[in-house]
Amino acid sequence: MSDINTIVEHLVEARRAYYGSGHAIMTDEEYDSLENLLKNQDPDNPFFETVGHPVSSAWEKADHSIFMGSLEKVNTEEEFLKWVSRFDKSILLCAQLKLDGLSLSLDYVDSLFDKGITRGNGTTGENISDNVVLMKGFRAKAMVPAMEILTDMADHGMIDEMKPSEYPGILSDCTIRAELLLNKADFAKINMSLPEKDRYANPRNAAAGISRRLDGKFCKYLQIVAYDINRPLDEPTKINVLKKLGFYTPVQYVGNIEGIIKNFEDIKKSRDKLLYDIDGVVVKAASYEIQKAMGITRNKPKGQKAWKFEPPGAATIFIREEWDVGRTGVVTPLAHLEPVEIEGSVIRKATLHNVAEIKRLGIGRGDTVMLVKRGDIIPKIIAVLSRAGKPVEIPVDCPSCGRKLDNDGTTLRCTHDDCARKNFFRILNWIKVAEIDTFGESLAEGLYDLGRLCCIADLYRLTESDISSVEGWGAKSAKKIIENINKTKKMSSEKFLCALGIPTISESTSEELLKVFETIDNLMKQSVDTIKELKGFSDISANKIVEGLSKNKQEIDLLLTMISLKSEDIQGILKNLSFCFTGAMEHPRHYYQKIVTQQGGTNKTSVVNGLTYLICNEDRGSSKSVKAEKYGVKVITEKEFLEMAGSIEPEAENPEPEKLVEECGSLFDEE
Ligand SMILES: [Zn+2]
Q1: Pair 452, 506 in one domain
Q2: Cα–Cα distance measured from residue 657 to residue 540, given in angstroms and rounded to the nearest whole number
């Protein structure tokens, strides 16, 4: 059914994009789905003999002393059982978290760090030593504990006597295999600091990109986790040796076949709670002798398997496209599909994202496509497997108002303010943000079709008879709806501003804007220049805000005659005071910041002129306390702050991430 060459093309393209720039064109799971499909249809395809990517970068090339292969995968319990069936039933296996990062080889000569090399094509990689030394978990020295190794070897009858002098290599030179990871929180932080076009798709891509940056920036956030050392040792001993050398190691479970299956299920359930991404479990025969006997085929050790979380995907037929105008005027393509079941739910539609994605896929009606979905993620078409029709045509006119669309090559947009569909979405946004209870999308559609709801202000002109004229709505529920609408005739300025649905004005930007400009009236008088001076507002967003407000001025004026604004004035003991926290404290920083917000104070992330307090437990002398002195900011300790705040605990919200990690066990074992 599918064209094998097309699948290989997609895979090669995805690999190139990922390794070339660190900016992937599909997620890891999407990649795996495709790879599985190829495995099912053509298990001996030469594609499987290649690993990684050809080396081409500004970094110096370096050869691996030992070929750096990859692992063969299994995706289901059935495949796993098939693999273990070749062992004795009583075999001892070990399972390590399959960390979703970038593979790295660390060479030590005479116990000292010599170089750190990326996987590359397995034979040659890039020598990124300059960056490796900046990373978390880096060890400059690796003095392999000889006695431990010799004891283990003697225990297994590999040597008769423990004479360290006969095994000098054991003591000094070694190659350690590790994974480079970026935790989810640092990933988010780094991404936020980058311009939108440079942002990474996921922590693994970010780790790949950052580890090869020439300026070493962000490398301090990367974590080295070691999982292998080139010594003839059983797996559990290897991990112990690595720990003794001071490395972080992956959590390891050792047990029989049933135990490994249970462990896999447990980990699968808790994976989203971990601070780092994992994509499965690496299962190895615990015994070195067994692994050695099984050997290596096509660069892959037969005594080890990567048991990956099953990527839920399926092949189906693309019937037709549908273009829909969104709230901001962006016109997005939706795919109608031959219904197909994934993870228990039947899927009929999927997103095609934008024009660029349609071009990349070259999708046409009747084509067989690969579809993936996991959890709450909207189903997505990741590849065309076989072609039937001519490629989808990109519309020139707006499907709603029929006027010319703006096409920048990636995004299609209707720029006409009075486009009916755009307005409809703005009305829906208002209903949602203003929290008009029980007013759903179907009622809005009904009123829109009857011509009674064409702009936001129409909501406040609706009568009970308007509502009961919509099919399925009686007098009683109509009365309730009008009551609910009336309840929103009083709202905070922040809510009002956000509900307008002006591009870039979200709940938090609306709060920030009004914190500075206080009233909607005053905000409307501001220029692009004054807004872009605010922290976190770019040229582009300042422009959009000013433009959006002026375009909608008439509507805003009209709405202000219908709605009265109340200011959300928080009374608290920290009112009119500002705080900046620095250095180590008992709780995470957001704990204290929450107290500040709840007590009416303001948080600052840096020491600025006018700041009231810097909270710092450590000895003075940090750059922040020097700055505080310069501006005459008062420096107090955590204890003093809590006393000032009346020792108030912040109201509980979501469990802190630290707790979640504890619940399912930490990712690393550290000696
Ligand atoms: Zn339009």
Answers
A1: no
A2: 33
- CB neighbour list of residue 129: distance below 8 Å, 6 or more residues apart: 113, 114, 115, 116
Can you tell me the mean pLDDT for 124-132?
Answer: 92
In the block, residue with structure tokens 């093309």 = 9
Q: Among the three residues 362, 395, 428, which one is the final residue of a domain in this structure?
A: 395
Tell me if 659 is assigned to some domain. yes
Assigned token pair, 315: 């092949």
- Rounded CA-CA distance 248/250 in Å is 7
* 432 and 509, same domain (yes or no): no
**365 and 221 within one domain:** no
| Count: domains in the chain | 5
- Written as six digits, the tokens of 562 are 């219908």
Residues 481 and 496 in one domain: no
Domain encompassing residue 648: 578-663
Of 308, 342, 364, the residue that ends a domain is 308
Q: Looking at residue 166, which CATH number applies to its domain?
A: 3.30.470.30
* Alpha-carbon dihedral sign for residues 60, 63, 65, 71: positive
| d(CA 369, ligand 1 centre) in Å | 30
Q: Indicate if 264 and 346 belong to the same structural domain.
A: no
Distance from the alpha carbon of residue 330 to the mean position of ligand 1, in angstroms: 9
Cα 191 to ligand 1 centroid, rounded to whole Å: 33
Residue whose entry in the numeric block shows the structure tokens 């002798």: 289
CA distances from 117 to 106, 107, 111, 576 (A): 7, 8, 17, 54
- CATH code: domain of residue 357: 2.40.50.140
Instruction: Determine the distance separating the centroid of ligand 1 and the alpha carbon of 326, expressed in angstroms.
Output: 10
Q: Give residue 400 CA to ligand 1 midpoint distance, Å.
A: 5
Residue 43 lies in a domain: no
Q: To which residue do tokens 């070691």 refer?
A: 226
pLDDT, tens digit (0-9, with 9 covering 90-100), for 330-384: 899 999 999 988 766 788 999 888 898 898 889 999 999 988 876 556 788 888 8
Q: Is 499 left (phi over 0), alpha (psi -120 to 50) or beta?
A: alpha
Encode pLDDT of 283-307 as tens digits: 999 998 898 888 888 778 889 999 9
Residues 480 and 625 in one domain: no
- Write the CATH number for 448: 1.10.150.20
User: How far is it, in rounded angstroms, from Cα 161 to Cα 221?
Assistant: 44
Instruction: State whether residue 434 is helix, strand or coil.
Output: coil
CA–CA distance from 258 to each of 94, 291, 350, 639 (Å)?
Answer: 12, 20, 38, 51
CB atoms within 10 A of CB 351: 15
Give the CA diameter of the chain: 97
Dist. CA 401 → ligand 1 center (Å): 4
pLDDT digits (tens, 9 = 90+) for 65-92: 888 888 888 888 899 999 999 888 889 9
Q: Are 367 and 381 in contact (CB under 8 A)?
A: no
- Residue 323 has a pLDDT of 93
In what helix (H) or strand (E) does residue 466 lie, and over which residues does it extend? helix 464-468
Do 322 and 271 lie in a common domain?
A: no
User: Does 537 lie in the same domain as 470?
Assistant: no
Instruction: Give the residue ranges of DSSP H helices in 226-353.
Output: 235-244, 257-270, 288-294
d(CA 550, ligand 1 centre) in Å: 20
- What SS3 state is found at 76? coil
Q: Is 87 left (phi over 0), alpha (psi -120 to 50) or beta?
A: beta
Predicted TM-score (pTM) above 0.90: no
Q: What's the residue count for the chain?
A: 671
Give residue 398 CA to ligand 1 midpoint distance, Å. 5
16 assigned to some structural domain: no
**372 within some domain:** yes
